[in-house]
Write a structure and sequence with these properties.
The chain has 2 domains: about 20-75, Serine Threonine Protein Phosphatase 5, Tetratricopeptide repeat, CATH 1.25.40; about 90-135, no CATH class. The chain is about 75% helix and about 0% strand. The chain has helices at about 1-20, 25-40, 40-55, 60-70, 75-90, 95-105, 110-120, 130.
């Protein structure tokens, strides 16, 4: 009985370690997700970004690009969640502000779109004039 308990504890520990923070594995899955995203295979990209996040839940780029993939398959609300998570991890990731602005523009909430476009512009994202010129 003692041996069984030790085996179970060891197996649990191994499982915990293998699913924990592993930036190298995260990067491998992220890169594969980017390949799928580049080829417009959005569902596959999401699967690999999910795996990248599983191995490093601070991988802001995996959240961001998973959001892009979701946006492209009309899962816009889920994309917004990923963009917000990106900013929670890295508030200086300017493209996330821009994409949130695009989300709000797509649902005709122009005040919120302008709000995020202006943040992106103020933080230094280039080429924002066309997006902010009609904002108050």
């Amino acid at each position: 009985m003692k041996r069984l308990l030790k085996t179970l504890v060891f197996a649990s520990l191994l499982l915990f370690i293998s699913c924990g923070n592993n930036p190298e594995k995260s990067r491998l899955y992220y890169d594969k997700g980017m390949d799928y995203l580049y080829h417009s295979q959005f569902e596959e990209a999401i699967e690999y970004f999910d795996k990248a996040i599983k191995f490093n839940d601070k991988n802001h780029e995996a959240y961001f690009y998973r959001g892009c993939a979701k946006y492209n398959i009309y899962q816009k609300d889920e994309a917004l969640e990923d963009y917000n998570k990106t900013l929670e991890i890295d508030p200086e990731y300017l493209q996330a502000y821009f994409n949130i602005g695009l989300y709000y523009r797509s649902i005709n909430d122009y005040d919120m779109a302008c709000y995020y476009f202006k943040i992106a512009e103020a933080k230094g994202r280039p080429n924002m004039e066309d997006y902010t010129k009609h904002c108050r």
